[in-house]
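Whiteboard transcription, Tuesday session. T.W. wrote the C-alpha cells on the left side:
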C-alpha cells in the first residue's frame, strides 16, 4: 500500500482537481473515507468544536494529537492537519512535525498568524499577520524536521483575511515557497472568489495552490478546475451536518418524551457496530479465545 504521506503528495501534485473533506474524530474520519474521499482535512475549527471549546488554541496541541491518532487508526487515507500557527515558534513546529510523523499524519498546514489564533471568519480584518521572516523560519524548521521525504508542509496565507491586498499575498507566497513550502493555501472570507482567482492568475503554477471555499461556495467547482487549483478543502461541512442532526434529534426526544418519531430517522445500532468494526472482534475472539 502506498504510504499516506505519498498519497497526500500525489493529491497535491495531481494534474486533476482533488478534494479533502473535513473530519474531527475517528468516526467522522471513517465516514469520510467510506464516502469515497481520497484525503482528510483535520480541521482546527471542527476538532475544537467537537471538544466543546473555541477555535483559539484552547485545546492543547497534544490533545489534538490524541484526536488525530484515532482518526488515523480508523482510516487508510491521508490526513492533512490544520496546524493553526504551529502552536508556538519554529521549535514547537519542528516538534509537532516529528510527533505527527510518529502518529501517521501525512502533512501539516501552518498559517501566518499569531498564537493563539482566532478563526479566520471571526473579525478577520483585525487579526495580525506573522512577520514574514519568522514564518519562513517555521516552514524551514518543519521541512528540516521531517524524516519522511513525502511528508507535506503547506503554508497558509491569511493576507486577504486580514485585509491586505494581492501584492502582500503574492509577496508572502513567494517567501514561503522559497522557504520550502510544498504548497500554498490562499484563504479568503469574501462571498465571491475574486481574491483567490486573482491570486492564482498571478501566481500561476509556481507551486500547488489549495483553497477553502467555505464562504464563496456558490462559485462552480469547474471554475477551480479551469484555474488549475490543486486541492479544494471542504473544511467544516461534516461537523455542521452532525450539529444539525444532533440538535434536531435532541429537540425531538426532549419535546416528545418518546423515541417513536425518531427511531426510523436515525441509523440502527447495528450500523454503529459496523462502523466500529465489531465483526472483526467477533472473528478474532474465535481465533484467540479458548473455544468450548
Ligand atoms: C478550519 O477548518 O479550521 C480552517 C478553515 O482553518 S476555516 O475555518 O475556513 O478558516
Ligand atoms: Mg483552522
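and on the right, the sequence the group agreed on:
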Amino acid at each position: 500500500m502506498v504510504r499516506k504521506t505519498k498519497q497526500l503528495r500525489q493529491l497535491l501534485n495531481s494534474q486533476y482537481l482533488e478534494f479533502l473533506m473535513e473530519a474531527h474524530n475517528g468516526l467522522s474520519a471513517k465516514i469520510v473515507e467510506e464516502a469515497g474521499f481520497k484525503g482528510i482535512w483535520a480541521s482546527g475549527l471542527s476538532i475544537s468544536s467537537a471538544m466543546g471549546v473555541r477555535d483559539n488554541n484552547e485545546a492543547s496541541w497534544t490533545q489534538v494529537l490524541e484526536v488525530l491518532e484515532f482518526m488515523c487508526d480508523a482510516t487508510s487515507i491521508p490526513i492533512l492537519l490544520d496546524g493553526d500557527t504551529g502552536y508556538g515558534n519554529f521549535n514547537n513546529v519542528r516538534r509537532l512535525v516529528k510527533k505527527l510523523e510518529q502518529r501517521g499524519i501525512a502533512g501539516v498546514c501552518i498559517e501566518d498568524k499569531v498564537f493563539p489564533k482566532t478563526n479566520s471568519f471571526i473579525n478577520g480584518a483585525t487579526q495580525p499577520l506573522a512577520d514574514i521572516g519568522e514564518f519562513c523560519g517555521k516552514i524551514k524548521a518543519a521541512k528540516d524536521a521531517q524524516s519522511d521525504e513525502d511528508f507535506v508542509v503547506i503554508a497558509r496565507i491569511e493576507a486577504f483575511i486580514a485585509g491586505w491586498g494581492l501584492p502582500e499575498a503574492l509577496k508572502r507566497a513567494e517567501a514561503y515557497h522559497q522557504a520550502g513550502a510544498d504548497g500554498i493555501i490562499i484563504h479568503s472570507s469574501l462571498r465571491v472568489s475574486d481574491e483567490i482567482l486573482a491570486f492564482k492568475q498571478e501566481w500561476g503554477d509556481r507551486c500547488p495552490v489549495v483553497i477553502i471555499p467555505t464562504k464563496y461556495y456558490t462559485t462552480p467547482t469547474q471554475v477551480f478546475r479551469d484555474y488549475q487549483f490543486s486541492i479544494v478543502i471542504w473544511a467544516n461541512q461534516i461537523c455542521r451536518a452532525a450539529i444539525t442532526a444532533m440538535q434536531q434529534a435532541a429537540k425531538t426526544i426532549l419535546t416528545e418524551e418518546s423515541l417513536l418519531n425518531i427511531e426510523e430517522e436515525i441509523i440502527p445500532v447495528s450500523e454503529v457496530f459496523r462502523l466500529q468494526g465489531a465483526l472483526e472482534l467477533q472473528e478474532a475472539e474465535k481465533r484467540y479465545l479458548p473455544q468450548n
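Someone added at the bottom: The pocket of magnesium ion (ligand 2) is lined by residues 43-45, 82 (CB under 6 Å).
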